[in-house]
């Protein structure tokens, strides 16, 4: 690890002023679970670490009208233990199945978004759910939709002076449905392939305006509009889901990874299987409290 | 260099450290609490897990500065009365071991012992969250802790036995 100065920020304003002053030489640290691994490898060598631990307003869940805001420094553990009621209830379920318990104590939702590692779950889920990211800086705030935020493997549209302070999830009607599935070699690993699907699901189970996002085996969360068109309003059932799975298996184009090496054909097939399983999850990841058509968890 | 101060096993410990010092290194190199093991140094194996403010963390992937002002419990602190632990190499009496430590002993969950401090920290955390876990929930809880000796079954058995004992005895004040 290269040496650095450790700056503690007591307030958001202080952190933004430190970021404005040190720019590319600085890196905010929330839980540090990805950042410290990179720093040990010297893949990243910030001269200043700006600790966000003391900024209470960046932590926890808040409702903005019917929208949900998840503070960027909310830990996976915090989100998993106290999930939001309503359509985004399943964020807790996703968070509770990431890495392992001690890592979830430290790792944060915003950290995963800023790290923009395609294998991480939160970028994929946030993209499918139509989340927007609130980026703040001394030169102004902006809300960037998730699908515009990720520009490639570990790259985003964020400027060095900007700080992600929260993830904002839009208001959803009672027929909103979503599901997420991932595949990994070992239970504590990051995903090798992941699929998130969201949309309105009518009483018959048909999906309307669906969003299909594939992660982990893509360079960044990637929408597959052909699959979305196939599913939109189509009669639900095993036949449709298998057709969608087969189509995804032909469209997905996983890059070769050094470890663990999985045949691209295997990963393409896996994407299809994950999509089929996600679509077959009729309850979805809402809390079943009138928010998901068939109820239950 | 920065001054770092935290409560470790009940006692406030302070040291002047380089900013890069990991919590693991603070415990082992500065406080000489070598019960916390350095396995992989990349947050994979779980041998370095300790409790930080009551939650298990992998101390190899946390800066000492991140734990500044916090409350840390290491394997040296699990036995009753261990806020003033026995000097290195001196035995702790059987009665003072925590139920989980005794269960590890009784069920053969310790073989080489390298993973044990981390297993104890994570399972302690797990049992605080869920006093009556299923075997699958224990396995889920320790999925970030590698053990190359036991095949995990004895560790799961010990965790379940300790959970059962801790449920039958009211927690000490």
Strand order of the largest sheet of chain A: 4-5-10-6-7
What proportion strand of chain B? 5-15%
Which spans of chain A have pLDDT < 50 for at least 5 consecutive residues? 290-297
Describe the global form of chain A.
globular
Helical content of chain B (DSSP H or I, runs of 4+): 25-40%
Spatially, the strands of the biggest sheet of chain B line up as 2-1-5-3-4
Oligomer: heterodimer
Structural class of the secondary structure composition of chain B? alpha+beta
Key words describing this protein structure:
heterodimer, A: 297 residues, alpha+beta, 5-stranded antiparallel sheet, 4-stranded antiparallel sheet, globular, disordered C terminus, B: 173 residues, 5-stranded mixed sheet, 5 helices, 5 strands
Structure description:
The complex is a heterodimer of chains A (297) and B (173). With 297 residues, chain A is α+β, with helices and mostly antiparallel strands. Chain A contains eleven helices and 14 strands. Chain B is globular. The interface between A and B is medium-sized, with 25 and 31 residues.
């Amino acid at each position: 690890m290269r040496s650095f100065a450790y700056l503690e920020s007591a307030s958001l304003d202080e952190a933004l002023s430190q970021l404005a002053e040190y720019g590319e030489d600085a890196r905010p640290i929330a839980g540090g679970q990805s950042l410290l691994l990179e720093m040990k490898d010297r893949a990243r060598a910030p001269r200043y670490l700006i600790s966000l631990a003391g900024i209470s307003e960046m932590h926890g869940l808040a409702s903005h009208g019917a929208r949900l805001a998840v503070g960027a420094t909310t830990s996976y553990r915090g989100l998993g233990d106290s999930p939001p009621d309503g359509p985004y209830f399943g964020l807790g379920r996703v968070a509770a199945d990431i890495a392992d318990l001690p890592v979830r104590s430290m790792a944060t939702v915003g950290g995963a978004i800023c790290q923009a590692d395609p294998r991480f779950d939160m970028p994929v889920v946030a993209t499918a759910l139509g989340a927007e990211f609130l980026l703040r800086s001394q030169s102004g705030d902006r809300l960037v939709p998730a699908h515009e935020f990720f520009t490639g493997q570990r790259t985003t549209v964020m400027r060095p002076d900007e700080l992600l302070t929260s993830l904002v999830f839009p208001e959803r009607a009672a027929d909103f449905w979503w599901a997420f599935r991932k595949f990994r070699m070992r239970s504590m690993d990051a995903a090798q392939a992941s699929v998130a699907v969201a949309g309105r699901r009518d009483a018959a189970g048909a999906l309307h305006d669906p969003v299909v996002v594939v992660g982990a085996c893509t360079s960044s969360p990637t929408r597959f509009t052909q699959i979305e068109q196939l599913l939109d309003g189509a009669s639900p059932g095993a036949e449709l889901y298998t057709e969608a799975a087969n189509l995804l298996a032909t469209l997905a184009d996983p890059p070769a990874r050094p470890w663990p090496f999985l045949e691209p054909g295997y990963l393409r097939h896996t994407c299809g299987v994950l999509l089929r399983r996600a679509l077959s999850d009729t309850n979805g990841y809402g809390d079943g409290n009138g928010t998901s058509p068939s109820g239950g968890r | 260099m920065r001054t770092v101060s935290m409560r470790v096993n009940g006692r406030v410990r302070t040291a002047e450290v380089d900013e890069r010092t990991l919590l693991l290194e603070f415990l082992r190199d500065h406080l000489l609490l070598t019960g916390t093991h350095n396995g992989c140094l990349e947050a994979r194996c779980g041998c370095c897990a300790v409790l930080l403010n009551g939650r298990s963390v992998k101390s190899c992937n946390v800066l000492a500065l991140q734990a500044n002002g916090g409350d840390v419990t290491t394997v040296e602190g699990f036995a009753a009365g261990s806020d003033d632990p026995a000097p290195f190499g001196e035995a702790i009496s059987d009665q003072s071991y925590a139920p989980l430590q005794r269960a590890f002993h009784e069920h053969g969950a310790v073989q080489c012992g390298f993973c044990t401090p981390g297993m104890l920290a994570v399972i302690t955390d797990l049992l605080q969250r869920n006093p009556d876990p299923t075997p699958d929930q224990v396995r889920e809880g320790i999925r970030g802790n590698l053990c190359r000796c036991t095949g995990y079954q004895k560790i799961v058995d010990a965790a379940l036995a300790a959970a059962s004992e801790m449920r039958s005895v009211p927690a000490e004040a």
